Each structure stands twice: as structure tokens, then as C-alpha cells.
Amino acid sequence: MAIGITSEETLDSQLGGCRFNQDANKSKVSYCASCSAHKYALCSKLDGEALAAFGANSTHRKIDAGQTLYSEYDEATSFYTVVSGEVRLSRMLDDGRRQITGFKSQGDFLGLSTKGLYTADAEAIDDVVVCQFSLAGLNKSLENFSAVQVRLMEMMQAEVIDLQDQMLLLGRKTPIEKIANFLLDRAERHIERNGLAEDVNEVEFHLPMSRVDIADFLGLTIETVSRTFTKLKKSGLIELKTSQDVKICDLDELRVQANSDE
Amino acid sequence: MAIGITSEETLDSQLGGCRFNQDANKSKVSYCASCSAHKYALCSKLDGEALAAFGANSTHRKIDAGQTLYSEYDEATSFYTVVSGEVRLSRMLDDGRRQITGFKSQGDFLGLSTKGLYTADAEAIDDVVVCQFSLAGLNKSLENFSAVQVRLMEMMQAEVIDLQDQMLLLGRKTPIEKIANFLLDRAERHIERNGLAEDVNEVEFHLPMSRVDIADFLGLTIETVSRTFTKLKKSGLIELKTSQDVKICDLDELRVQANSDE
DNA sequence: CGGGCCCTTGATTCACGTCAATCTCTGTGG
DNA sequence: CCACAGAGATTGACGTGAATCAAGGGCCCG
After folding, report:
1. Where residue A135 sits, what CATH number does that domain have?
2. Which of A114, A130, A165 is the last residue of a domain?
3. Distance CA A10, CA B44 (A)
4. Are B220 and B147 found together in one domain?
5. Residues B18, B20, B25, B29: is their CA dihedral positive or negative?
6. Is the pLDDT reported for residue A213 higher than 70?
7. Contacts of A165 in chain B (CB under 8 A)
8. Is residue B161 part of a domain?
9. Residue A170 and residue B170: Cβ atoms within 8 Å?
């Protein structure tokens, strides 16, 4: 089951029952308002009529695991909000070296461009649903909905700060610190999104991405990632039910290992 | 001579002749319009009356080389535009490891915060002049001047894309690629800011920052930085008049070395 | 049962970091 | 004018930790 889909929702209800729903405007109010990503997304500050009007330009779309949403240097036509599932953003060098710049999930936005071209590859890690806006339409909306503009600003600011954190990690942290940080971020996101108590010291969650993805996110090789997981396992800090299902046994100690500053 | 001050301008004229110039409103039109940072800055889309009104909330301030503008976790009260000189933004770990997240110069903004606290240290590399806004005032201005909001959006977007580039560099590039990239960025900025021909293959410019700063920006040690400079020098790609004054002898070849993708 | 993919583990290498000495430039004081 | 000190940069010798290379294991799916 994909991250971010709460148990009440079927995929069908998220898609509004149709792939292209321009004809669904009259039901938009309840449609967008009931979207599982709404409260984290671009549109989180809108409701009622305004939300319906804003949402009228959007379309939900399903992307299968492994599929490409867009590629770097493609002509940028759309802007996206992730509804469910997880998308990886990455850049590549000619020789195949890759850096993942972020994993985007429920409520996160996607689709930045310069000079009309996307600046990263965007691929679905697992089955993904996105809410798609035409770029032209979004820019028009931004003029009319200042609440969206404000929200976008907030989200961009948060993005910059995240990226700066990640730079510190990439430039100056050891493999153990990197993995600990990574797991900590995932754990905290999981706690937040699932409304668990803030002060728990154990969490269990699923990692949708492969070891290759983790390596390319943290600036390591798969071997080092794997060895570091093993180290953490042997020290009793984590358990691996499968390679993608982690249990953090001591969040506090993980924070120490992560050197995370927060 | 500080980067970004064109030859006609004295520091005095940039400061408007006074440190706190609330009383200078009537002369604001010409004051802001003649600011050397205007065309790159937050206010670049404003002119005439609007520019004067927007600028009324701002104050130019001089910061000496080496001085701190603000520190991480300080209460965020102001937002800044760099008028001249150069500021480094950095984060630190407890044990002193440091990552510089960016060098900010003419027209760039500064002062992002979360939960009311600055997210980085900001220090003057050389003598710096900034244009300072109270955060409250700026937020109010953003409501009234949509052109500023649009411009801020553009600048934030460019910032995100820059940071993603830097992540690819930190995570996946070799020391030579890192230094070549760094020099290339500097060279291109120099060419742009000084209006040189686009197709030159040689440039000469000043690096205001120390080897330590370069190392902390690129995720290297000073020794590796130094050795890499020497390598580039021996291969005839660059010349060093002093350790801070570089001449790029073959920009095209430097682009090859940088693996820069652009 | 067999093939393929992903992950883990082990052995080896080498690039970058570390440690240490020397050099250069600048400013200061005799 | 020179001697000296101190900071920053360079260079060299050496060690190490992560990358590389190579093998083996687990799991899914036909």
C-alpha cells in the first residue's frame, strides 16, 4: 500500500473516478476538499468556492511505479502536487553518475523549470497519483489566488532550507551520520503524517526506494549504504524486517548518531 | 575594491550619506533607482513612485570584512539585499565541521528563517553593503507590491535550482570537477556582471574568499583545494597572480573539466 | 526448479584526508 | 632597512575509509 493513502480512501475516490475530469467541475468542491493531499499542498489555504475554482484547472493522474513523469530539459508544461506515492527528483551527469535531490510525497510540489525546461528528472518510485496543473493555468491562478501565492512561497522557503540541510549532509557528514539522518527524516515524516505521539522512541515504517536510490540521495555507493545499515543493525539501533521495512528501536540514539542539530 | 561597486560610485553615495536614512524619503526615488544592486534585486521590477515607496522601508548598512550579519538560530528580524561585497552563508556542526551553502553578492537576497529563527550564519567576506528591510515591513510590502512578490518567487526558484546543482556537485563530483565548476561559476558571473563578450575564452578575476571558504563550500579540505589549484595551474588551464587572483586561460576546456551540463 | 534482480558481504585499492614541514606575503617594531 | 611574527597557502609523506571489484545469498516470478 502506497505511503500517504489513508485507509478510508480507495484509489478510485482519489482519481475522482475518471482520469481526465474537466467535466467534474460541479463536484469539485467536495472533490478537492476531500483530497488526501489537500492539507499539505499548494491549495491548503483555500476552501469552499475558491478551492473549487482553483481546482478546476487541475487533473488527477496516475503514474505507475518506475514510470517517468518528466525528464530534465523536457519542455516544462505542467506543475504537480503529489497526492499519494513517492516521486524522486534527480540529476545526471553524462557518465551516469546521479544525484537525487529529493523524494517528494503527499502534498509536495514538483515541476520547477528555468527557461521553460525542467531542471530534473521526476520518476515514480511506487505507484503515484499527482494533481497536475498546466503551468500557464497555475501562473494565472497565482494572480487570482493570493493565498496560493503565499503558500507557494512558504513551500519554496521550506525547500531551500531542506536543500541547505542536505548540502551540509553531503559535504560534511560521515556515512553513518548520513544514513542516521535519512532514517530520522523518514521516521519523523512518518510520525507526523500518521499522527503518532511525538515522544515515542520506536517507529516502524516502509522505505519505498531502493538501496541505489538511497545511495544516490546521500552521495554514497550501494555497498556503503548496505554496510552502514548492517552496522546500525548490529548495534541494535534498527531492525530490518525486509530490506525495505525498518524499525527504529531508539530514536533518541539515532538523533545522536545523526548529528542532526534539530 | 569590492566586487560589484562600479567605478562611478563611491561608498558614500551607496550609503546615501547616512547610516539610517528614514529622513531621506523625499530623495528616495533617485536614491533607490541609482542603487547599483537595483537591477538584480528584489526591487528590480519597481520604478518611480512604487520603488520609492518600497524603498522607504529599507536602510543601507555597511558591514566590515569578517563581521557577522546574523547567526543561525538568532531571532530573525530583517531581510537583506546585498548591494556590494560578498556574504557567505554557512551551517555548522557542533564539532566545527562547516558547510557553506552559498556566496551572496550584488542583488542576491539573504535572511531566510523558519519559526522566526535564521537558518544559517551570514558573514561578510569583504567589506559589504546591504539593504536591510524589517521582516514585518517586507511582508507588508509583499502584500502591496505584487511585482516584488513575483520577483521574490523568481529568485527563490533560481535559488532552489542552484542548490540542486550544488548537491550534484557535492554528492557526485571529483575534486577537479568541483574546483573547475566553482571557477567557472565565478568566471561566468564576472563576465555577466562586467558586461564582457559572451564568447571570450579568457577571464581574469578576484576571489574574495579564502581557501578554507572554498573547501567548506565544495566539501573538501584546504589541502585538496590547494593541490587541485596547482594541478590546474600545471596543466596550463589557469594562472594565479596571487592566491586570490585567478586567470582562466581556457574557459572551454574548463567547462569540459567541470562536467557542468550547461 | 531456474533465472534475474537486489541486497549483502568480503577482499583489495586508491583517492582524499590527516599530519607535518615549508613557503609566501604582510604588517610591525627595532 | 631589516628582522621577526603570524596567518594563510602550498607541498610532501603517510594512513585510512569509502570506492571498487568480485562473490555469494535471498526472494520473486515464470
Report:
1. 2.60.120.10
2. A165
3. 48
4. no
5. positive
6. yes
7. 91
8. yes
9. yes
- B147: Cα separation from own chain's centroid: 22
Q: Which of the listed residues B98, B133, B165 is the one where a domain comes to its end?
A: B165
Mean confidence (pLDDT) of chain B: 88
B70 with B200, same domain: the answer is no
Q: Using the CA of B222, which nucleotide's C1' is the nearest one?
A: D9
A73 and A201 share a domain?
A: no
Is the pLDDT confidence value at B101 over 70? yes
Claim to verify: residue A146 and residue A196 sit in the same structural domain:
no
Identify whether residues A210 and A81 lie together within a single domain: no
% of chain B with per-residue pLDDT over 90? 80
* Same domain (yes/no): A111, A238: no
pLDDT in tens, B125-160: 999 999 999 999 999 999 899 899 999 999 999 999
In a domain, A4, yes or no: no
- Asked if B120 is an interface residue toward chain A (Cβ–Cβ < 8 A), one would say yes
The count of domains in chain A is: 2
pLDDT band at B12 (very low <50, low <70, confident <90, very high): very low
B261 inside 8 A of chain A by CB: yes
Chain B contact set for A119 (CB, 8 A):
161, 164
pLDDT of B167-185, one tens digit each?
Answer: 999 999 999 999 999 999 9
pLDDT at A62 over 50: yes
Do B207 and B191 belong to one domain? Answer: yes
Task: Write out pLDDT tens, residues B236-262.
Answer: 999 999 999 999 999 999 999 998 765
Question: Residue A114 is nearest to which of B94, B161, B163, comparing CB atoms?
Answer: B161
Judged by a CB distance cut-off of 8 A, whether residue A74 touches chain B is no
Closest-approach nucleotide to residue B230, Cα vs C1': D10
Is B229's CB less than 7 Å from nucleic acid strand D? yes
Where is pLDDT greater, at A140 or A4?
Answer: A140
Q: Do B164 and A94 touch (CB under 8 A)?
A: no
Give the pTM: 0.89
Q: Shortest Cα distance from A89 to chain B (angstroms)?
A: 10
Q: Is A219 in Cβ contact with B114 (below 8 Å)?
A: no
In a domain, A1, yes or no: no
- What CATH number does residue A198 fall under? 1.10.10.10
In a domain? residue B3: no
Residue A5 pLDDT class (50, 70, 90 cuts): very low
**For residue A249, what are the domain limits?**
174-258
Question: Distance, angstroms, CA B91 to C1' C4?
Answer: 45
If DSSP states are collapsed to H, E and C, what string results for B114-182? ECCEECCEEEECCCEEEEEEEHHHHHHHHHHCHHHHHHHHHHHHHHHHHHHHHHHHHHHCCHHHHHHHH
Question: Nearest C-alpha of chain A: how many angstroms from B212?
Answer: 14
Express each pLDDT in B53-69 by its tens digit: 999 989 999 999 999 99
For residues B29 and B156, membership in a common domain is answered with yes
